[in-house]
From TrEMBL:
PROSITE patterns according to UniProt: UBIQUITIN_ACTIVAT_2
GO CC, alphabetical: cytoplasm; SUMO activating enzyme complex
InterPro entries in alphabetical order: E1_4HB, E1_FCCH, E1_FCCH_sf, ThiF/MoeB/HesA, ThiF_NAD_FAD-bd, Ub-activating_enz_E1_C, Ub-E1_IAD_1, UBA_E1_C_sf
Residues in Ubiquitin-activating enzyme E1 C-terminal domain copies: 891-1029
Catalytic activity: ATP + ubiquitin + [E1 ubiquitin-activating enzyme]-L-cysteine = AMP + diphosphate + S-ubiquitinyl-[E1 ubiquitin-activating enzyme]-L-cysteine
A GO biological process held by the record: protein sumoylation
Family membership: Belongs to the ubiquitin-activating E1 family.
Name of the protein in its database record: E1 ubiquitin-activating enzyme
Amino acid sequence: MSEKQIDTDLYSRQIGTFGMETMGKLIQMKVLISGLRGLGVETAKNLILAGPAAVILHDDALVEMRDLGANFYLSEADVGKRSRAQACAAQLSQLNPYVTVSVHSGPVSEELLSGLSVAVFSEASQAELLRCNELCRSRSPAVGFVAADCFGLAATCFVDFGEHFTCRDKDGEEPRSAIVAGVTQENPGAVHCHHDRRHGFQDGDWVTFREVQGMAELNSSQPRQIKVSGPYSFTIEDTSGYSAYVCEGIVSQVNVPHTIAFASYGQCLAQPQAAAGGEALAVPDLAKFGRSEQLHFAVQAVREYREKHGQLPANRDAAAAAACVQLAVESNEARRQQGDAFALSVEKIEEDVVRMVAMFCTCMISPMAAFLGGVVAQEVVKFTGKYTPLHQLLYFDMFELCPKEDPSDWRPQGSRYDDQLAIHGAAVQKALGDMKLFLVGAGALGCELLKSFAMIGACCSDSGKAVVTDMDRIELSNLNRQFLFRQADIGKPKSTSAANAAQAMNGALKVQALEIRVGNDTEETFDDEFWTSLDGVINALDNVQARMYVDSRCVWFGKPLLESGTLGTKANVQVILPNLTQSYGDSQDPPEESIPLCTLKHFPHAIEHTIEWARDAFEQLFVEGPREVNTFLTETAKYLAKVPSEGSGTSQLARLRRVKTMLEQRGGSFDVCVDFAVMEFQEKFHDSIAQLLHTFPADHVTSEGSKFWSGPKRAPAPVKFDVGDKLHLDFVMAASNLYAANLGIPQNRDAAQVSKMAATAKVGDFKPKEMKIKVDDKDTTLEGCMDDDVVVRQVIAEMAELGSKLKASASFEAAEFEKDDDSNFHVHFIAATANLRARNYKIQEADFHKVKMVAGKIIPAIATTTAMVTGLVTAELLKLVTRRTRKVEDFKNAFVNLALPLWLLSEPLPPLKTTSKDHDPIIMGPVRAKPEGFTTWDKVEVRLGDATLKQFVDHMMNEVGVEVMIMSAGNACLYNAYLPAHKKRLGEKVTQIWENVTKQKLSPKRTYLVLEVSASDAEDGVDVMIPSIMFQFR
């Protein structure tokens, strides 16, 4: 299937992660999924959303009632009547119209396997796994083989892609580039990079060089491996015989394909470390070193038990568990006696680990199925050669979910929750159903979490309730990963659609769907009573500001918060527990690097710089331009009076001429729009560049005698308009049609006609001006041409006369940037503009989709990562039910990167403590914490009723021992003891001061204010830090 047949609107976020090459391979794959309990259906769902050509479902077992606890596409009507594969095939096929979903009945034959790309097995016997693995390996090329199982609270995954698998891209990271500042002639040669930023390379990376002057031997396409010697340097091969380095050069990372040899399933049973090249088994949980080796024996013992007895051990069957322990002990002893250095053995089998696996191995719980289903589906995608496959075994457990004491009410009740009952009992299940939860967001994470609520029975009793809120409406691109939505839902609210779909999975789910933003302006809806009623909050958000607000509410009301997020193949989970852990606000990611303004305007050296510049050009021309005209028409005098105070004379003149031109061209023909586009081309890609080179010629040197155009400053070259150049015509097509939309002129999408119009456009000769240009952001030079100040005054006079004659007639239509509509020319304009500017500066151009991702600030997202991380979140949710009897180490934060693959689970960090300091660098003196070591979870409660400010200040002095100097509420300063005018406020009520300062009325629902104070110790005057104050006024 060609690239044109890939639905870039549907797959846009996934393409941002995988890239078009991987998508092209993925849409040709044919995959078998054998075993359709919770793990199988999760894998199938994630994979179908990803978009292979075909998925074949295989599971002849009849649906059991307990299957409904993890397979969300089964219903009670299916129990005992239909096979699992038949029962869920119809709904799986609705997930993606581009994927053919079929059902295979009967044994898995050699013929079936031979036509596949990858075969995935779960719930298969040991003998069946050995047989199918050998058949897959015998094919040429090999058929990918994945065997995975959820044994209650333990999980395992095995991957085998054959003896000669080629990995094209080990991690999926965007290749880094650096500017070369120098290369030595020695062995090994040392490469020094420009100090504007760290190169970011790692030992073993492969790189290529280009544009190196002097040492031209480096300018070959041949990748070379490097060894990092510092943040701005690395070494390469022997360069002692090369020409001397003179200047310039770009060094870039490249992905060099490498071959991975996989061992068979049979070999990995005995020699898992040998199969992985001698590496130890992965350790997903940092608190469980050695656990994977123990789980290896436990899982094999359970499978061996099934081979001997024809079935897995029954739930909580002590005798069967003891038999599994004995099998594990015997297997380990046999390995130890073999004397094989590669045979896995442990010093001693941990019997509790084997028992934990054996006691619940027939259980399938939704958190584990979701976690492993995301992992397995991503491993299947890796068969395309994108990312590093699992090599070759993963073991994972959620043993913390098992209560410390065996519940007496664990026996099955013939319900969908029987597998969970076997683990934690009926009382915990009832408490789970009674939970009152707040889910913030109903996008990809929100959909998965609502499904999890339905599967585990959260909020499913008459006393329970889930509230979900999301303001967004469903778009086409959502359907690729927000699996509760269908084509017919486009345009509908996410929250209500997701809630309805989740209730269809479990009719007992109690959920209220809202379309209300969570923030300061909606505290009348999400009031104290609402927050106080909650048992927990789960964030499913995609922006930091909203996360921070929800976190602050949870901290204030002392509510647990489960925070998670994804970025392509990466994901994280943070568990936030009142008084026990850090809050989200205690630790934040560093802000994104911003691009210096001078780099954007004059000295770009990366495609991201030109894309940002093009995005700004779109805003200036088609958004701000029409708005300025509308402002001019409605408030002519006010507008013209303001112009001279904003920017340089050159920028003022450009704005005024743009307004004047738009007024003159309103109501014209499409020809004027094409003329406009050609003139903009001439100005942006020829004249402005020629002017820059006139000011700073190619041989210009700085006052220090060094070359001006060097390092990050790349000497540009003007581009002459050529209607025969496709990129030039792309710019004109997009710019002319966008301008026509501004003016209310009918658009013209006929490229041939637009090309003819553009060919007749007259372009004037460039005439240089004497201009001042900033060379960097520290430069205080006022940019522009001095002559323009005089012209501005003349044009303002002309515009004033013009404004007096014009009536505020029909307004001009400003564009509103929409990244997901490829027919609106928005991204097309930005792509053409960015790549033309890249040509000016000899920067490698970007494809349309990359421009779309960067300009639209689209976050790469895939279903596999989302499903995997929500499995981890749901496991933490189950722990919240019994959190008051748990220790903090039972809970797990997580960082995952499925591309590597990497799992890191760890205990949540304790809250940050505020402590006294002998010297604070900000106040230049000592500072005291009261109470010592307080955290964000602490607050000072003041219950004085509707007191005056003086009463409050006196209370703080007498009861807390501090003298209040400054008091604020949010951004409003209510009192400043250093300002004499504020002294009169002492006699006013605090509530009245708040209303006067904020110009708002206190809601009848509000009973307190949150106050922050700057204070000093009442005894010695030392500055004091205290927690936030809860001022209870009624």
